[in-house]
Amino acid sequence: GAVVSQHPSRVICKSGTSVKIECRSLDFQATTMFWYRQFPKQSLMLMATSNEGSKATYEQGVEKDKFLINHASLTLSTLTVTSAHPEDSSFYICSARLGSSNQPQHFGDGTRLSIL
Amino acid sequence: AQSVAQPEDQVNVAEGNPLTVKCTYSVSGNPYLFWYVQYPNRGLQFLLKYITGDNLVKGSYGFEAEFNKSQTSFHLKKPSALVSDSALYFCAAATANFNKFYFGSGTKLNVKP
Fold first, then answer.
1. Under an 8 A CB cutoff, do A44 and B103 touch?
2. Fewer Cβ atoms within 10 A, N terminus or C terminus of chain A?
């Protein structure tokens, strides 16, 4: 149980395009979803927290207009990287949690984004 | 500030030997503590958690961790390491007051045959 599906697994696109990444909880309803960014050989950096039906809460230093998050249902959250540039290239990982903070987050397999 | 520390960037053990991956935390209130494992180009897989109760918690793949409140530690252990245990391990903490996880910097575990 507690499977989180993240799609696509890899994206390569030209600078200036927008890229949408989907995160789905397949067998549970996620009240909260999280989006992380991971640089090579580093830990996860939390970008934003999203609760279904409300605006996402962004961490300090993360541009809201650059990284658009939509959490339209209890099983789907999307991250759109708008007008992507090479410095946005990274590994993006989503996670979903059912219930309160004493519950584990369940992670997707990540999306490798490469901007040329 | 809330934080989680994993003092070792890398741990090397021989297959069959016991392993320990260290984690200490600085979190206000009663912490919820978690261990995750990450394989290359994959997301994180949940191993185990401590919420309350018995200080020794058992998780997936034969891993266990011991919560030590006085030392504010939550070290991950396994009695006999396997080569397939080689991966990146993350410790994380949360509390009832905080909606998000605080992750450690990760420890790369190398198990050699």
1. yes
2. N
